[in-house]
Amino acid sequence: MSAGGGTKAIIAALGANLAIAVAKFVAFLFTGSSSMLAESVHSVADSGNQALLIVGGKRAERRSTRKHPFGYGRERYFYAFVVAVVLFTIGALFSLYEGWHKIADPHPVESPVWAFGVLVFAIVAEGFSFRTAIRESRALKGDHSWVSFIRRAKAPELPVVLLEDFGALLGLIFALFGVSMSVVTGDGIWDGIGTMMIGALLAVIAVILATETKSLLIGESAAPEIEEQICAALESAPEVSRVIHLRTLHLGPEELLVAAKIAVQHDDTAGEVARGIDEAERRVREAVPIARVIYLEPDLYRADASAESRTGA
What we know:
mainly alpha, Alpha-lytic protease prodomain-like, Alpha-Beta Plaits, 3-stranded mixed beta sheet, 3 strands
């Protein structure tokens, strides 16, 4: 997996979640708190998710084959989508069920000191993981907002880890709220309410992740500014008078397919056109290194074809 995939953030999140899962489960055994059980399952699911992201990154590095001539780069999108499914089915549904069960049959939290101690430890550990994910993401985020970064990112790992860590911190706050209210009031229903809040939070995050990764799985074009760079590079070649239209598709986070119809002079020889295409491809790869698969079709520009967008919008 490339550095852009946020390997450091994934490893940090995996280590934190494994340690936190063990601590939360021990606290559940001592307290009987449904919030602690829900958070234990949440951390186990997150650990599995980080493992899935690592597996996806490794499988995406395989060489192209006759059956898959464009390689396996989009496996990273598939495994990110599986993460969303796991987060919903294991994390959200289990938490919602456990919360409903606790509300229907409430009982007080035992040995709350264990719960408070583990929750504070978990908040510190998740905060470290979240800070690592933010630091890894800043270079890719640029001037965009965090919401825009999550929506525009072509590498799915960092948005997944960011949302998971953010959800984990909120979930810990919800668990702390549920346990605290149960201890203060002596009513175990609050513990169930905190658990239901965790389940609802995980469901929302899972839906967001599934929506974004589904779009990547279907196939997304390059960002508008990248397409403008490609057009500029093509039109800078001497033999290319203009780009008639352009199509781009991400074969993976760091691999872009470029297909364009370019206008050439009507009196150019076949050799001149071939040299012009080679030069245009070289300039595109120089301007946009991730443009690794390029198909250019020479044509004569016609004014009546101007209705066809350069970028296919």
